[in-house]
From TrEMBL:
Its cofactor is FAD. Residues 311-367 form the NADH-rubredoxin oxidoreductase C-terminal domain. This is Nitrite reductase [NAD(P)H] large subunit. The keyword Oxidoreductase applies. It comes from the Bacteria. Keywords: FAD, Flavoprotein, Oxidoreductase. GO terms for molecular function: nitrite reductase [NAD(P)H] activity.
Length: 375
C-alpha cells in the first residue's frame, strides 16, 4: 500500500504516526512539504519573534526521526497537481502513485485587498521561512504595526514589543476580541497591553500602505501611522486550490465525515484544510486529533472524530482571559460585576443560574469556581 500525505504539519505527521502502528511489510509512507523544515510546533513561531526561541528549538520530529521510521520525507517539494482518476500526485520534479492520499496541506493567511501591498517590509506569518524574513526586517525596524487585533495579532504585537519595537495594533472592532469579550473586558485587556508597551487603536479601518520602496505609513480611514514594519494578521483560509475543479466536495474547506474521508473514497483530509460539520477549527489540537483519525482509518483501523470544544481559558499576550457562555445577552438578565485588584469579572445569571462568565486578569481560586456555567 502506498500512503501519500501532503503536508508535514500537525495533521500530516500525526496521521503518519498512526499509519506506522498498522503498517504492513510492504507499505510505503511518503510525506511532502513545500517548507524546508521538518515537523515543528507552528504556534511557537510567535515566540521566535521576540528572539527568545530559535526555530531549530521548536522542531518536534527532525529528519532523522523520519529516516528512523522509514517514512520518505520530501522537504521543499510542492505538490502542484492531484490526478484522482489515475491516483497520482505531481510536483515540479516528479510524480507519485497512491493507494490512499491524505490532504493535510493546512491553510494560508488571508489578506484583504489593501493598497500598497507591493511595498517592502509588509508580511504575514505562517511558516518558519516567513519568520526568518520578518526577524531580519525587525533587526533594522523601529516602528511595527500589526493589522488585526485577534488572538494571533495580539500575541504577535506582544512579542514585537518584547523585542523592543515601538508596536501598535489596529483592530477594526470597537474593542479588542469582540468574539470573546464585552466592551469592558476588551478595554481592560487594552489597558494591560498598553502596560506591556503595546499601543492599541480600535475602530481602525485600514485602507492600505504608503511609502517609497519600503512601507513608511499605514493609511487608515481617518489617520496615518508611521511604520517601517507591518504584519497583517487578518485570518486564514484553507488551502483548497490544489483540488479545486476536481471531483471532491469543497465548501470553505475540504468536506470530511467523522472518519476524515472526503467524498472520494481514497482521499482523506485533516487539519486546517478540512471542514467537518461546517467547522474549520484552524487550531493545533483538533488538527492533531483529526490527523490521528485519518491515519488510523486509512490504514484499516477504526476511529472517529466527534468535534472539539474550544478552550475558553486563554492567555492573551501573557494576560489571563476566561470567556464562556452568554456574555452580551440581550434581555432581562442579572449581571454581577466584580472589579478587584486589576481583575474584571462579570457573571451573567438567568433566574439565579449562571449562564456566562468573563474574567480578565488574575485567576483566583474563587474566580476558577465561577467558570462553571449551566448553559
Ligand atoms: C503563528 C501562528 C501561531 C499559532 N498559534 C496557535 C495557538 O496558539 N494555538 C493553536 O491551537 N493554534 C495556533 N495556530 C494554528 C495552528 O498552528 C494550526 O491550526 C495547525 O498548524 C494546523 O495544522 P495542519 O497540519 O492542518 O496545517 P499546517 O501546520 O499549516 O501544515 C500544512 C503543511 O502542508 C504543507 N503544504 C501546503 N501546501 C502544500 C503543497 N502544495 N505541497 C506540499 N506541501 C504543502 C505546508 O508547507 C505545511 O508543512 C497558530 C498558527 C500560526 C501560523
Amino acid at each position: 500500500m502506498d500512503y501519500l500525505i501532503i503536508g508535514a504539519g500537525a495533521a500530516g505527521v500525526s496521521a503518519a504516526k498512526e499509519i506506522l502502528k498498522n503498517r504492513k511489510k510492504d507499505d510505503k509512507i511518503s510525506i511532502f512539504t513545500d517548507e524546508n523544515y521538518p515537523f515543528y510546533y507552528r504556534p511557537r513561531l510567535i515566540e521566535c519573534l521576540s528572539g527568545e526561541v530559535e526555530v531549530e528549538e521548536i522542531i518536534i520530529n527532525d529528519e532523522q526521526w523520519f529516516e528512523d521510521n522509514n517514512i520518505n520525507l520530501h522537504l521543499g517539494e510542492k505538490i502542484t497537481e492531484v490526478d484522482l482518476g489515475n491516483k497520482v500526485i505531481k510536483s515540479n520534479s516528479d510524480q507519485y502513485n497512491y493507494d490512499k492520499l491524505l490532504l493535510a496541506n493546512g491553510s494560508h493567511c488571508f489578506v484583504p485587498p489593501f493598497s500598497g501591498m507591493d511595498l517592502e517590509n509588509i508580511f504575514t506569518l505562517r511558516t518558519a521561512a516567513d519568520l526568518k524574513v520578518i526577524n531580519k526586517a525587525a533587526e533594522k525596524a523601529k516602528k511595527a504595526v500589526v493589522v488585526g487585533g485577534g488572538l494571533l495579532g495580539l500575541e504577535i504585537a506582544y512579542n514585537f514589543a518584547k523585542a523592543g519595537l515601538d508596536t501598535t495594533v489596529l483592530e477594526v472592532a470597537p474593542y479588542l476580541l469582540p468574539m470573546q469579550l464585552d466592551k469592558k473586558g476588551g478595554d481592560l485587556l487594552e489597558e494591560k497591553l498598553k502596560a506591556n508597551d503595546v499601543k492599541v487603536i480600535t475602530d481602525a479601518t485600514t485602507k492600505g500602505f504608503d511609502g517609497q520602496q519600503s512601507v513608511e505609513k499605514v493609511v487608515l480611514e481617518d489617520q496615518e501611522i508611521e511604520a517601517d514594519l507591518v504584519l497583517i494578521s487578518t485570518g486564514v483560509r484553507s488551502n483548497t486550490s490544489l483540488i479545486e475543479n476536481l471531483d471532491i466536495e469543497i465548501n470553505n474547506g475540504v468536506k470530511v465525515n467523522s472518519k476524515m474521508q472526503t467524498s472520494n473514497p481514497d482521499v482523506y483530509a485533516a487539519g486546517d484544510v478540512a471542514e467537518y460539520e461546517g467547522e474549520i477549527y484552524g487550531i493545533w489540537p483538533p488538527s492533531l486529533a483529526q490527523g490521528r483519525v485519518a491515519g488510523t482509518v486509512m490504514s484499516g483501523g477504526e476511529a472517529e472524530f466527534d468535534g472539539y470544544v474550544r478552550s475558553h481559558k486563554l492567555k492573551v499576550a501573557g494576560i489571563n482571559v476566561v470567556s464562556l457562555g452568554e456574555l452580551n445577552e440581550e434581555g432581562d438578565y442579572e449581571e454581577e460585576i466584580i472589579v478587584d485588584n486589576d481583575t474584571y469579572v462579570k457573571v451573567i445569571k438567568d433566574n439565579g443560574d449562571k449562564i456566562g462568565v468573563l474574567i480578565v486578569g488574575q485567576y483566583s481560586e474563587q474566580n476558577q469556581k465561577l467558570a462553571d456555567v449551566k448553559r
